[in-house]
Specification:
Layout: H1 4-13, H2 20-41, H3 72-78, E1 82-83, E2 86-87
Antiparallel strand pairs: 1-2
Helix pairs in contact: 1-2
Length: 93
């Protein structure tokens, strides 16, 4: 960005209303950020070994450890009402 007018132009593209003072402040901030990026781009990394990242599955296998219906009696028994082995609830329409 060359001037605070550029900042105001970008703000208008984003449909933001900023004052002239805010534009100058943003311009100063952008200058600092771009200066820092220039410093980072200037770092020589030619002697740094490239690392390859590989995808590792960190999820565990889904293993069923209980028999079907093993906890059903406890669950249905804890409900306030049950009918034919199921928890009874009011109709939801």
């Amino acid at each position: 960005m060359d001037s605070y007018e550029d900042v105001q132009h970008v703000a208008s593209l984003a449909r933001l209303t900023i004052t002239e003072e805010e534009a100058r402040n943003y311009f100063t901030d952008f200058e600092s950020i771009l200066s820092y990026i220039d410093q980072i781009e200037g770092i020589d990394v030619s002697d740094v070994e490239k690392k390859r990242h590989r995808s590792i599955n960190t999820m565990r296998d889904d293993v069923v450890t209980v028999e079907r219906g093993e906890h059903t009696d406890n669950l249905v028994g804890a409900a306030p009402e049950s009918k034919d082995g199921y928890i009874a609830v009011q109709k939801v329409l």
